[in-house]
Amino acid sequence: MIRTPEEFVAELRGLSHRYWGTHPFHQRMHAGELSRDELRTWAANRWYYQSVLPRKDAAIISNCPLPEIRRAWLDRVVYHDGRSDDGTDLDSGRERWLRLCEAVGLSRAEVLDERHVVPGVRFAVDAYVTFARTRPWLEAVASGLTEMFSGHLMQRRVADMLARYDWISRDDLAYFTDRIEAVSGEGKSTLDIVVRYSVTAQQQDAAVAALSFKCDVLWSVLDAIERAAHVRET
Ligand SMILES: O=C(O)c1cc(C(=O)O)c2c(n1)C(=O)C(=O)c1cc(C(=O)O)[nH]c1-2
């Protein structure tokens, strides 16, 4: 049965308990319990997620017949890739992530050649891109709704990392401080699109399933990182 917009939004928001904010690895990060090596494993593996986001968003654009959505979605590609290619463009998400990697002790080369990316992370992240390439554009957009849960988490992450890891500075966390504002805007506009274009019960069901799938992607990423960090420690 078709839900009212309020019911639909409540059901989507109701998936927040499956979000990676409560994952044990994130809890240890917030508690200041991660070693430098564990933080390096995290940063190098999450790089893989960061690096595919523009390709995921480009897949959505290529599948979407609506110019107003394509136009708006382009900003996401540019946010992560930036506008120049000189390697000093701190105005791009990818450069800010690389800066964080360097702050935790990784060289750019070892991040860019993906030598630390473990199979579970690659499988989960690739599944997200495949989802965007192969599912209807509206479902792919809905899978990005995890962003509506992420602003609050990033705020806590910045505060807790600054408080608990005294060798990390606010500048090192520029990726997150810049991103907090962007995700709250993106999360809201994504929700508006999903509510507006999901006009049948089946489309609403598919949107809920897409968000659920994405929660699984992120959870699996952290499971694999946690395992890899444990193996490196022992
Ligand atoms: O740090 C986080 O916890 C977090 C979570 C998420 C998310 O929930 O998908 C994203 C991001 N960060 C992020 O920085 C980002 O650019 C992003 C894009 C997307 C997406 O699905 O399109 N999610 C996220």
From TrEMBL:
Source organism, top-level taxon: Bacteria
Catalysed reaction equations from the record: 6-(2-amino-2-carboxyethyl)-7,8-dioxo-1,2,3,4,7,8-hexahydroquinoline-2,4-dicarboxylate + 3 O2 = pyrroloquinoline quinone + 2 H2O2 + 2 H2O + H(+)
Oxidoreductase listed as a keyword: yes
Enzyme class label: oxidoreductase
Enzyme nomenclature, EC number: 1.3.3.11
Family annotation (InterPro entries): Haem_Oase-like_multi-hlx (IPR016084), PqqC (IPR011845), PqqC-like (IPR039068), Thiaminase-2/PQQC (IPR004305)
Keyword Transcription found: no
Any one GO molecular-function label of the UniProt entry: pyrroloquinoline-quinone synthase activity
Residues making up the signal peptide according to the UniProt record: none
Assigned keywords, A-Z: Oxidoreductase, PQQ biosynthesis
Domain (Thiaminase-2/PQQC): residue spans on this chain: 11-223
Pathway: Cofactor biosynthesis; pyrroloquinoline quinone biosynthesis; Cofactor biosynthesis; thiamine diphosphate biosynthesis
The family this protein is said to belong to: Belongs to the PqqC family.
Cited function: Ring cyclization and eight-electron oxidation of 3a-(2-amino-2-carboxyethyl)-4,5-dioxo-4,5,6,7,8,9-hexahydroquinoline-7,9-dicarboxylic-acid to PQQ.
Name of the featured protein: Pyrroloquinoline-quinone synthase
